[in-house]
Structure formats: C-alpha cells, structure tokens
Design a protein that fits this description.
This protein has about 1500 residues and is of the alpha+beta class. The chain is about 45% helix and about 10% strand. The chain contains 52 helices and 37 strands. Helix 33 runs antiparallel to helix 34. The longest helix is centred in the C-terminal third of the chain and has 32 residues, at about 1130-1160.
Length: about 1500
C-alpha cells in the first residue's frame, strides 16, 4: 500500500435501444430482435416509448423492509483477501496477547498482504535475506529505489509477519513480542465471520436466494457437506424457523460513523469475545459441552499436571484448559489482558478455514420514506452538496476508490430482494389494491409489466408450476448511494430484466456470456483464497472486482447508467454488477425464452459439478412443455425438440448403464409430488424428475443416475429405479414435440416460398387459406409473417372476388341512353385489366380465375389486333364486325374500339344493304333508296359512306325522273305505240333500280306485245276464235295503256257478236222470258214442272255427284262451261249431243210417267198438277210435250186460240218463240261471217243440224210407210171431256184434245218429241202432229156450233198443204227448172291471197254433183207416195233442172233465178245463198267459207 489505486476508467457503454410503440408491443419479439446485438455486451438498456409511462402502484404505506449492511471495502475481492489476511495476523497477535498495528512507510500504510505475498513468491524470508532481494521487493511494491526502503520492509516483515509464518509451519516459537512504533496505526479486525454469524431476518414467504441473505456454515471435518435441506425446503415449501446462535452483537450505527473507528471495533470485539463461565465447548471440537466444574481444584495444568501456583494458572478462553504461565513456551511473565488462547486453541483458531462471506442484516426496519431520508442525508453529507447536483461520474469513481481501499470503511444499506408478493409490485396488477385509471388499464396486461413477463407464452418459466420468488415473482430493490450488487449470473443462467421506477440512476456493468468463464478464471486467479473456502463464491452475489482489473486481464466489460423509466436486460450467463447513484426504487424478475433452453441444460450440468442446488427441475419443466406439445408455441417446440431428444438420449444411456450394472427393480413415482429434499440427489444436489435410484437402507435419500454408486454400499440388485415415464412413454412425447416443431417448419417453408413468389412454385389460394388457418389454429409465432400471409390471402380473396365478378359480368351495369345504345359502367379498362393480370401474376399464389383472366386478356388483345386490322380496312365485312362486337360483349372490359366498331358496323351494314339492293335492282325501289339515304345521313362520316350516298342520290334522282316519265307515258292520251315505249324502255334498262312505273310500263309493253301476238294468232291458221277468248282479250286490252293496232278490229268483231246475240235473242226469246239465249238453244237439262220441287235437293246431290264425275252436265252452266272449254266445234257438238240424249231420256220418261199417272189415278184429288201443284179441277189443258195437266186459269188459256190438231205447250216446255227456219239460217250465216265461236253459236248450229236431221227422219218415216200403219185408238183411256164432266160429275175436263200416247208407236213418239223440242217452227212438225191427231184421235162429229168455215180451216192446215216453202211434193213438182248462177265477185277489198286460193270447179266435179242430185231426185220420187208429200205431175218435169245444195239444211229455193255461192275454202262446194244466209251484195263483196272448211273436224249429218 505504498501508492493509491489508479483512477477508475469507465468501461465502454452497452447498447441502448429505443423501440417504437409498435415494436414495443411484443416484448419477447423485440428482445429476440435485439439479442444478436445485445448479447455481445451481456447487458443492454431499453428506453420505452415516451407514451409508455406506467403508474407507480406499490403500496408505500405498507412497504417496510430491513436492508442489508454493506461495507464497501469488503465487497471487492482483492480488498477482502487483504482484509482477511490482516484479520488473521491481528488474531494471531491478539491470541499472543498483543495488538496489531500497521506501520507506515514513506508516510503510507504498509501493504502487509502484498509484502507477504512477494516474500513468499521470492522463496521466503530466509531466501530473500540471503539473496538480498528486499530492494527488489520494495520496487515491486511501488517504492522508489535508493532510499533503503528494503531494510524497513525487512524489519516490518520480521517483526509482524515472520512469527505468523513460522506459526503456520508448526515451528515452536520462542517468546514472541510485538513492538509497535508510535506512528503505527492500530489495526481493528473486521471479524467478518463473527459479524455474519447473525442470521438475516426472513421476509419472503417463498424465498429462493437464501444463501444471499446469510452465510453458509462449513463443517470442519473434511469431506462433510453442509446441510442445505432447510434452505431447500424453505425455497420450495415456504418459510421455516430460523435457528439463532446464542451470541450477542453490538448495534452499529450506519448513518453516522464515529470519529475513532478503532475504539468502536475494539468494543465490538471485546463484547463478542468476552468469555462466559461454564461455556460449552464449540462444535468444531467435537466434544460434549458439559465440561464446567464447581470448584477451582479441578483446574490443573495440562503441561505439568499440577494444580499448584493457582495465581499463575491461566484458563484458556477457548477450551477452558489450564496452563501455568511458566509452563508455556515461551513462558509468560504476566497474566495477559483480555481473552487468552492456549497453544492448542491458537493453532486450531488460526488453522480454521475462513467462513463464507455474506451480508448481514441491519438491526432496524425502514419505511420507504425513512430510508429515502437516510439515503439522501448520507449522499449530501458525503459529497457535501445537494444530491441532485452530484455528477454520476464522480460517484462512480468514488465508489471504486472506496471498495479498493482498506483505510476507509464506508458502510451503506441496501433494501434488496424485497418480495413484491407481500408488499405489492411497482406495476399495477389486476385485482390489486391500486386503483388503476381507465387510461392506465393497458399497463395491467402489458408484456413489459414485470409481473406478466415471466409467465408470457413465449417464456418457458410459465411451465414451472411453483411460484419462485425472484424468478417468476418480481423482487423490489430500494437503493442508496454506493449500495451495490456484486458480480453474479442469474440462477439457471436465465435472463433478467430490471426496471427503475423512479429515483437516481443505477450504474450497471456487464460481461457477455462468452467471457463468463474468463471472468471466473480471472477472479479465481486474483483472489484464490476466496474460492478455496467458497467455491460457488460468484453465485452468492457478495463479491465484486474492479472492471478495470478485469479489463486489464482481457475480460470485456460494458457499462450503462439506468435512469428512471428505463429497462436493463441481462442475457443468459452474462455476469453483471453495479451500484446505485442514490435513492431509487427498482424492480427485477427473471424470464427464459426458447433460445435459453440449451443454456439451461448446460447450467444444470454446471451445477452438478459445483454440487449446487437447483431452483427448479429442468427436466420437469421440459416434460411439462412436451406434454403440451399440440398447443405449444411452435418456436418453443422447435427449441424444445433438441431438448427432449437430448433428454431422451441421456436418459436412455443412463438407464441402460444402471441396467447393465444389475439394477432390476423399478417403480414409477410422481416426482413432482415429493418434497425437494426427498428427490434431491444426495451427491450433486440435482433435483431428480425423470429417474433416480433409492435404497431401502436410506429411505429418505436418492441419487441421480450419474451418482448411483455413491448412494450406499448395498448390492445393485437391492437398488430400486424410480422413474416418471417409461421409455415407451417418452417416445411419443418426443415425437409430438417434433411434429409440432416440424409443422411450423413446414408452414414456415411454405409461407417463405409463397412470399418469395417463385413463379414455378406458386400455391393455390385454397392452400394459402389453409396455411392461414393452420397458423391460427396452431398459434404459430411470427405475427408479422402471419399478418403478411393474411394480407396476401385477403388481397388474393379480393382479387379472386373481383376476378369472378369480372368473369360473371356482375360488375357490368347497363343503362339505356336516349340514343338506345347500351353503355356500361364500372367496367375495367384494358390497361386496368393488364394491371389486374399483372397483379394476379404478382400474387404469391394462384387463383383459379387467373387462367380465365389471362385468357380474357389474351382475347382482349386479340380483339384489339383484329379491331385495328378491321378498322384500317376501307370496307370491312359486317359479319366480321358483328363477330368482333359479339366477341366484345363477352369481354367485360371497357373497350374504346367498341363504339368505333359499332359505328363501322352500322356503316358496313348500311353499305352491305346498299350493295345488296344494288346487286338486286329489282328490290331497289325509290322508297328503299330514300330510306337508305335517310339511314346514311344518320351514320358517322366515312369515305365509303359518302361515295355510296352520292351514288344513291344520283340513282334516286334519275329513278324519280324516269318514274315520272313512265307514269306520264302510261297516263297521257293518246296512248303511245309499242315501238315508242320500247325506245324509252331501252334507256330504263340501264337504271339499276326497281322502278314500279317503269316496270309497269315494261309489263304493259310486254302485255301489249303478248296481246298483239294473241290477237294476231287468232287470225292465223283458219281457226275461229272463241268469244270468251275475244272478251278476255278485250278485257285485257282495257288494262293495257298502249296503242294496240288489232284492238279496233277485235272490238268491231266482238261488237258484231254482241249484235248477233241481240238479234238471236230477239228471234228466239219470248218477251220477259227468264231463259237465256243459251238455255233456249241448248238441249234441256231440267225437264218438267215436277222437277222443280226437288231442285234444291237434287242440286246437292248433283254437286256431290259432280265431284265424283266432273264431266256430268246437269245445268246450263255446266253446258256453257263445257262448250267454252271445248277445243273445236266437233267437241262442242259432241257435248251437245250428250245433253240432247239426256234430254230425250228424261222427257220420254216424264211423258210416260205423267201419262200413266193420269190413267191409273182413281181419285183426281190425289194428283198434284199444274204450276200450282194442286189437284186437277175444272177445265184443264194438257201439254203435248210433258203430258202434264194445267189449270186453264193458271196458264191463262184462251180456247179461241187453239184449234183441233194444234199442239199446246205448257210454260215449261214453251221456251222460245220458235222462229221459222228461214229466220234462223241467216243468223247462222251471219255468225259464220263474223268468224267467232261462242256457245250460243254452237248451240244454234247444233239446233239447225238437229232440225235438218229431224226433217230427214220425218222423210224417212214417210218413205218407210210408218204413218200408214197407224190405226185408230180403241178402248184407250182418255181424259174426260166437257160432256163427261157434265154427265159424270168429273172433277175436271179437257176441251182441247191431245194426242193419245198409248196408240202411238215409240218411234213416232220419239220423232214427235224430238220435233217438239226443236226451237224452230217447221211445217213438218205441225203437219205430223195434225196427221197423228186425225189418225189416232179424229175429231168428233160436227156440232151445230161448228161452222163449215171452221172445218175448211182445218183442212187448209192439213199436212197435204205445205207452208213456208217447205219441201212438199207439190212445191217440188211446181218447180220446172232450177238455174244455177254464180256471180263472181269483183270486190276490190278481197285480198290477193284469197283470190289465188279460189279455185274453179272442174268438169269432173260438176258431173259428180249432177250424179248426186239425180240420186236425190230418185229418192224424192220414191217418197212421193207418203201422206205428207202428195204427188205432183209437174214434179218430174223439173228434176233435170234440180240442182243439189251442199248445205245440210238446204231450203231448196224456188224461183226463176236461184243465186248460188261457192265456198272459197278447201271444199269448193256450192250453196244456195239463201241457205247459207248470204245476200247477193255480200256474196259478191266478200269471200265465203263454209262451216265445214271453218271447222274441219265438224261432221255433217246426212
């Protein structure tokens, strides 16, 4: 101690972290974040955010504690070694009866410890003296050389230290005496073991660090272990009674130190070491304590064995043995003052091992306020300034100066390890006594609340069932200036966190975990004496060492000043120490994160070697976590996997080892239910959990499997293996932990791959959701990663929803504009779609709509390309545009090309419509052109549209002009010729449009041409046109506004026909007749009045029959239709023949029916007759044709008009005027001249033919003598006459006689009926009827009423008197000669062709005609005998002059000059002009063609 210690140099600062409020929200996440940096310094400081200011919640009124007493120079290791050495020297000399005083050298106290150490290092006192190394030693001690310091050092060593060293070697000392210089300073021993014999006052109900609060007793016997079970039981189970030693201790005032500390120390020593009579022997002697004797006689000198010289007999204060002063070596002259120890006790006391160092408890308790007052007073007095003005640097330097000196003894007090459970934490607690305001509720559950931090899910301490004070329950610390906490590491090498609630700063020093062993080795090296007596010295928190000293030996040390409101965190196995700058209040607790797990297992191994007890069982904690693997934090499970695997492997090996050694007995035990002392390894103090060995010889003892051989001496087969789990039970536990850890690893791998967005390794959205769900259900850590995953999943869901909506078209809402076009709202643009697809590609997952959207984008891009191509085309196809638009409708994207396409589509459709109409000019009408132009006006402007519009407008203008011109051509009068219209139509053909007027004009011209052709065709070929055809032509000509050349001629022809029909109607039809001309001329289809009643019914039947037989002719309409449809006159004649046959059949049947009806009827009232269909009554008249009766009144009969033999016809049978044949023949001739076929003409011709044929039949009947064979009727039925009516009262009568049918042969009946049916008056008919009447029903005898004139009249009308130029024999005979004359026509109007075709008759043809005429004359001569033709003598004279007319109906005209005409046709036959109805003028002016030449297929009757 020749020089003061060097000035303290502060170590470098540790890291200081200032987290944001977000980072500060998760304590362990933030600690894990800063750990790579902070664990390099062992400690770090965290400044919470400014917003984080928890209220101070400790119950100040209840807080009362007893602090620890700390003497600063006893804390430092090297200083304590020196003090312990000085205490040994002082004790040695004290036992020798002397007082140790430390000399001064060079005005400084001599460092006896250093001097003794250097002399021993040099070889000892004798060697140093022999080698004269005292100067060297003086230099090493820091003294200046050359001042003979070495001799002083030799003298002090020889006087003070040398006797002690000799004593230590066991050498008997001569009488030793200690002479002190007056300048020497008397040394007052610290008596650390004596002061620490006072046990601390227990305050924690659940204590842990008992060895911090009291010194452990170390037994003297070597190899004997201290009994720590009470402390262990106290730590685990609660409090235990404190055994106090029967010793007294002086009360020392800390606040105010006395001026002379030596006096206080001596008083204390005298008090403590004062002997007591009858005192028991110490435990170290190992003898009974009852050694006191009642009398002095019992004291005898143990050297000489005599009890004489009692006044010289000394009693040892240590063992009560007696020694004579003169028997001692060296002998004593006087009785020593104070306590005296015999040589035996002296050797024992000096050789006793040093007691473990610890803090003593203060003698008084403080409240927080009292302690603060004391602390502030101490600091202000010490530094002589206000506490808040003392710099921290000054306090730090002064602290390290005080702990390094032995001259100054500064004592302070420290309120350490105060249980928060008893007095309340500084942080607010749920359901605590402190009323927490609403704004401070967050601090109750905050992770930085030290009450919560050890039991958070991320802390493994939460899996320890017991509440461990200091580890799981915070401890409170109330400090004052210089109060300190020594170098230590936390139990089980755990983390610690300290929060300074308020007060002056706390200075911290930390050594990183990697330098922990280095620090231990340096301290062992620098203070080996301390570790010899206390191997776990650094676990007791009672020793510090100057950081500069450690740093000088290569130990990294960092420092920091912890201010109020700041945290300091120490990391696993990081040594830390420090002191308080002044009065403050701090709170600390331990916590263990998952990274601590392997460190904690290493700590257990370390404790096993140190034989240090464990605060908790590491294996128990690991198993508690392993059985909760399914709900365990995955990071913790990952860290736990290695732990359980190592634990299982270690347990397997140990169990196999003890099994091989012969342990066969086993028993399952619940270790957690046993007291700690019963499951603690008796050898290494490790707490057993998985297994342990026990023996029946020591039922309360157990050892771990590492020390199975140290339990007892019993054979191994007597040992019992206690186990918690079988190995088969441990395997699934380990597997579950591994599965839990791997589930997180797999999840983390998958999530990492997703976040890395590897294109070829993307997951589906469903897998992404499963990962999110797995993270939520599995309570995986890394909230940021989960949050990212959730954000990604949420974004992916939104994108998927938007994609689905886009694909479904739900985002598209359409509305109608005023123009009728549909527009869309909320549609994506193409660029937005591209961005959307890029967003899909950027997603770290695949959604099932992505391919569809990519396809949509592809279709959109294809649409854009096709649109660009089509829009660049001058005339795009409407179908392509429509297809493209249809394609765009399926693209739920806002396409700018769509409206342009619509415009172009409208244009293209319009252009296509224009092209279609232009390609089909027949459909391009004016309205279409106007409509197209109107549509084109509404289109967007385009070149092609403008061109088409111009063409349309031009075409429309031209078309309108031509339409007006064509209409004018058709409407103007007079009509234009066909040629003129053709010229106009040639120009119209070049106009590509549908022009109705022009087409109508064209059609008119075509119709005019066709009409003209048909009209001309009627005049060619010699065929006679039909009136219906002419009428149709004329009707058609009315609708043809064209000048038609043949129209006039046809109109004249039709006019002639109409005139002819009128003339024929006047000739045949009766006045007011209901019959038409055709009905009169044609044979009858309906016969008799009886048919009228069933006319309607028959009409229905006829209609049905007509359907079955279309050729049936039942009505006049059918006949007319058949005649009109006939191709020629022959077919017409055949039709009329069929009708005539039907007429004859019906009429003959009717005549027979009526005749039989009247002949068989008995009662006339049953008959229905007449037009009235009533029974006959009164005067009746009978129709000669139908043979029905008629009332005279009904038919308005005038009897004066009827003559006998005159035939009467009923209204149904009298159909016409029946003109004479000479009036009918001119009608036929005029019709032939008109050269038109009409049904009436065919019927007239058929009538004339029938007439001629009938005449021939009459002639034939006469020539055959048919009339001559008739006889009168006899006995036949006849109708009643007037006389019958009058005589027999008959209901009716007839005055006009009718021809009796019963007497008439059928041939004559048919001949007569046929003659009656002819609508021509013939003399033959009347003559035949009269003849038959006179023959069959002769008139009655003349009555007076009948005059001769009447009779003469009847004779005039007889058949023998012909009439009307008939062919009677008298007439034929009266003709002497007939001359033939043929006037040749010189009519200039005859055509040349007609003249050329007229042939002269050859001689041979004349001869043939002469022969034919002669044959006819012969026939007439043979028939001259008939009753009709009487013989005429002049007839024969004229035969040679008789010429035969070719007309079948030749009238055989008579006269001086008979005019003839030759047919100009092909037959060249001659005809009487009168027979063919020609006048002389007409025969001369016109060509005549007979009917046979006009209708070659006509068959003339013979």
């Amino acid at each position: 101690m020749t020089q003061p210690p060097c000035e303290f140099i502060p170590p470098p600062e540790c890291p200081v972290f200032e987290p944001s409020l977000e980072e500060f929200s998760d304590p362990f996440a933030y600690i894990n974040k800063i750990r790579p940096i902070a664990e390099k310094t062992g400690i770090c400081k965290i400044r919470p955010p400014q917003e984080w200011q928890p209220p101070f919640a400790c119950d100040v009124d209840r807080l009362k504690f007893t602090p620890r007493i700390q003497r600063l120079n006893e804390l430092e290791a090297q200083t304590r070694v020196k003090l312990n050495f000085l205490d040994q020297i002082a004790k040695f000399w004290e036992l020798q009866g002397s007082t140790l005083k430390i000399p001064h050298v060079e005005r400084k106290i001599l460092d006896l410890y250093q001097l003794n150490k250097l002399v021993n290092e040099e070889g000892g006192f004798e060697v140093v003296c022999r080698d004269r190394h005292w100067s060297k030693i003086s230099v090493k001690m820091g003294f200046s050389p050359g001042k003979a310091i070495g001799s002083h050092l030799r003298a002090h060593y020889e006087r003070i230290l040398y006797p002690y060293n000799l004593f230590q070697t066991g050498t008997n000392l001569s009488k030793a005496s200690l002479t002190n210089d007056t300048k020497d300073q008397e040394y007052t021993p610290h008596d650390i073991p004596q002061r620490q014999s006072v046990q601390p006052q227990e305050t924690c109900t659940i204590a842990r660090r008992a060895k911090r609060m009291r010194a452990e007793k170390i037994k003297i016997e070597p190899g004997e272990v201290c009994d720590t079970r009470p402390a262990l039981r106290m730590r685990r189970m609660g409090t235990f009674p404190v055994k106090r030693e029967p010793m007294r201790m002086a009360v020392t005032e800390i606040k105010e130190e006395p001026e002379d500390p030596t006096d206080i120390d001596e008083a204390v020593l005298n008090t403590v070491n004062k002997p007591t009579n009858k005192a028991p022997c110490t435990e170290q002697q190992g003898r009974p304590t009852s050694c006191s004797l009642p009398r002095v006689d019992h004291y005898m000198c143990l050297v000489c064995g005599q009890g004489n010289a009692e006044d010289r007999l000394l009693l040892c204060d240590g063992c009560d043995d007696s020694y004579h002063t003169f028997c001692l070596l060296p002998p004593l002259q006087d009785v020593p003052k104070g306590d005296w120890r015999c040589p035996k006790c002296l050797a024992q006391e000096c050789g006793k091992p040093q007691a473990a160092f610890g803090f003593e408890q203060a003698s008084r308790s403080y409240t927080l306020q009292a302690f603060g007052d004391m602390a502030d007073s101490f600091k202000s007095d010490y530094f002589n300034m206000p506490v808040h003005m003392v710099p921290t640097e000054l306090v730090e330097k002064e602290f390290w100066r005080l702990v390094s000196t032995i001259e100054e003894d500064v004592t302070v007090e420290y309120g350490a390890d105060i249980a928060s459970k008893e007095f309340g934490s500084g942080f607010p607690l749920k359901n605590g006594h402190f009323q927490v305001s609403p704004e401070d509720e967050q601090y109750v559950s905050s992770g930085w609340n030290l009450n919560n931090m050890p039991v958070l899910d991320a802390s493994v301490l939460t899996h320890i069932t017991a509440d461990i004070c200091g580890m799981k329950l915070p401890w409170l610390y109330v400090g004052m200036c210089f109060s300190s906490f020594c170098w230590h590491i936390e139990d089980h090498w755990s983390y610690s966190i300290n929060y300074l609630h308020w007060g002056e700063p706390k200075t911290w020093y930390g050594v990183p975990c990697y330098a922990a062993e280095h620090l231990e080795s340096v301290m062992r090296k620098l203070a080996p004496e301390l570790f010899e007596c206390q191997p776990d010295l650094l676990h007791q928190l009672v020793t510090i060492m100057n950081p500069n000293t450690l740093m000088n030996h290569g130990v990294p040390v960092f420092r920091t000043n912890q201010c109020a409101g700041e945290f300091v965190i120490t990391f696993p196995r990081a040594y830390h120490s420090g002191f308080n700058q002044g009065f403050n209040f701090a709170e600390a607790v331990n916590f263990c994160t998952m990274d601590w797990m392997p460190i904690g297992r290493s700590c257990i191994e370390h404790y096993r070697h140190l034989r240090r007890y464990c605060v908790f069982s590491h294996d128990e904690m690991v198993c508690n976590m392993a059985v909760k693997a399914p709900t365990l934090d995955v990071n913790l499970a990952a860290a736990l996997t290695k732990e359980v695997q190592d634990m299982l492997q270690e347990e397997e090996e140990l169990r196999k080892k003890v099994t091989k050694l012969g342990v066969v007995r086993s028993q399952q035990v619940d270790f957690e239910l046993l007291p700690d002392e019963e499951r603690q390894c008796d050898r290494c103090l490790t707490t057993c959990f998985l297994s342990g060995l026990a023996c029946d010889c020591r039922p309360k003892k157990m050892v771990c499997l590492y020390h199975f051989h140290e339990l007892c001496q019993c054979p191994t087969d007597k040992l019992t293996l206690h186990y918690k789990f079988t190995l088969e039970e441990l395997y699934p536990i380990v597997a579950s932990v591994k599965h839990r850890a791997e589930s997180y690893k797999n999840w983390l791998r998958d999530v990492t791959e997703i976040l890395e967005k590897k294109e070829g390794n993307k997951r589906s959205l469903e897998e992404l959701h499963s990962l999110v769900e797995l993270a939520e259900t599995g309570a995986f850590p890394d909230a940021n990663l989960q949050e990212q995953l959730k954000i990604i999943a949420s974004e992916a869901d939104k994108v998927a929803v938007m994609a689905q909506q886009l694909l479904n078209g739900k985002r598209q809402t359409r509305y109608r504009t005023c123009g009728g076009k549909s527009q869309s709202q909320n549609e994506l643009t193409v660029e937005e779609l591209r961005s959307f697809v890029r967003q899909l590609d950027a997603l770290p997952c695949n959604i099932r709509q992505a391919p569809l959207l990519r396809d949509l984008l592809t279709r959109v891009e294809d649409f854009e390309q096709r649109s660009a191509r089509l829009l660049s085309d001058e005339s795009p196809s409407p179908s392509e545009l429509q297809d493209l638009l249809d394609l765009s409708l399926g693209l739920d994207v806002e396409l700018p090309q769509r409206p342009v396409l619509r415009e172009r589509l409208e244009q293209a459709r319009w252009l296509e419509t224009v092209a279609q109409h232009s390609s089909q000019p027949e459909a391009l009408c004016l309205d279409t052109m106007r409509r197209l132009i109107d549509q084109g006006v509404g289109l967007a402007p385009h070149g092609s549209v403008e061109k088409a519009m111009a063409r349309l407008q031009e075409l429309l203008t031209v078309s309108e002009q031509w339409e007006e011109r064509a209409l004018g051509l058709m409407e103007n009068r007079p009509f234009q010729s066909i040629e003129a219209l053709n010229e106009a139509l040639q120009e119209v053909d070049n106009i590509p449009a549908f022009l109705p007027n022009c087409l109508e004009l064209k059609d008119t011209v075509e119709r005019a041409r066709s009409w003209v052709q048909e009209a001309e065709a009627l005049q060619l070929g010699g065929r006679i046109p039909v009136l219906e055809t002419l009428s149709e032509l004329l009707q058609r000509a009315d609708s043809i506004p064209v000048k038609l050349e043949p129209l006039g001629r046809l109109e004249a022809l039709v006019s002639d026909v109409q005139a002819w029909k009128e003339s024929a109607a006047k000739t045949f039809l009766l006045r007011n007749s209901h019959f038409s001309l055709l009905e009169v001329l044609c044979p009858r289809c309906d016969v008799g009045p009886g048919l009228l009643r069933s006319k309607s019914k028959k009409g229905k039947e006829m209609s049905q029959t007509s359907r079955r037989s279309p050729s049936r002719l039942d009505t006049v309409c059918d006949v007319e239709k058949a005649l009109s449809e006939s191709k020629d006159s022959a077919s017409a004649m055949a039709t009329l023949v069929e009708v005539h046959c039907t007429e004859m059949e019906l009429l003959l049947a009717l005549r027979t029916s009526n005749e039989s009806r009247f002949s068989t009827a008995d009662d006339g009232n049953a008959l229905s007759v007449c037009v009235c269909q009533k029974p006959p009554s009164g005067e009746m008249v009978r129709c000669e044709l139908c043979r029905d009766l008629f009332h005279g009144d009904c038919v308005q009969l005038e009897r004066s008009q009827l003559e006998y033999g005159e035939a009467w016809f009923c209204p149904f049978c009298q159909r016409s005027r029946k003109p004479p044949l000479d009036k009918v023949l001119p009608l036929l001739a005029s019709l032939q001249r008109i050269r038109v076929r009409l049904p009436e003409g065919d019927a007239l011709r058929f009538l004339i033919e029938r007439t001629v044929k009938w005449q021939h039949k009459v002639q034939q009947a006469c020539s055959d003598g048919l009339l001559e064979r008739l006889g009168k009727g006899r006995g036949s039925h006849r109708l009643p006459s007037r006389s019958d009516w009058e005589r027999h009262d008959s209901p009716f009568y007839t005055e006009h006689a009718s021809l009796p049918l019963y007497a008439l042969p059928s041939e004559l009946d048919e001949l007569l009926v046929e003659g009656f049916l002819l609508q021509v008056t013939l003399p033959e008919t009347e003559q035949l009827h009269r003849y038959l009447m006179y023959k069959l029903s002769p008139p009655p005898s003349p009555s007076p009423k009948h005059s001769p004139e009447r009779e003469h009249h009847h004779h005039k009308r007889s058949p023998q008197h012909g009439k009307n130029g008939g062919s009677s024999p008298s007439k034929e005979n009266g003709q002497s000669k007939r001359t033939k004359k043929r006037k040749e026509s010189s009519d200039s109007q005859l055509s040349d062709q007609a003249k050329k075709s007229r042939k002269k008759k050859s001689k041979k043809s004349r001869e043939r005609r002469e022969e034919e005429r002669s044959e006819r004359r012969e026939e007439r001569r043979r028939s001259s005998c008939s009753p009709v033709h009487t013989s005429d003598p002049a007839g024969s004279e004229s035969e040679e002059d008789y010429s035969l007319c070719a007309a079948p109906w030749c009238r055989e005209p008579e006269g001086d000059e008979v005019n003839w005409v030759q047919c100009d046709g092909t037959c060249n036959q001659w005809f009487h002009q009168v027979c063919v109805g020609l006048s002389s003028e007409r025969a001369e002016s016109e060509d005549y063609v007979c009917i046979s030449c006009t209708q070659p297929d006509y068959e003339r009757g013979t």
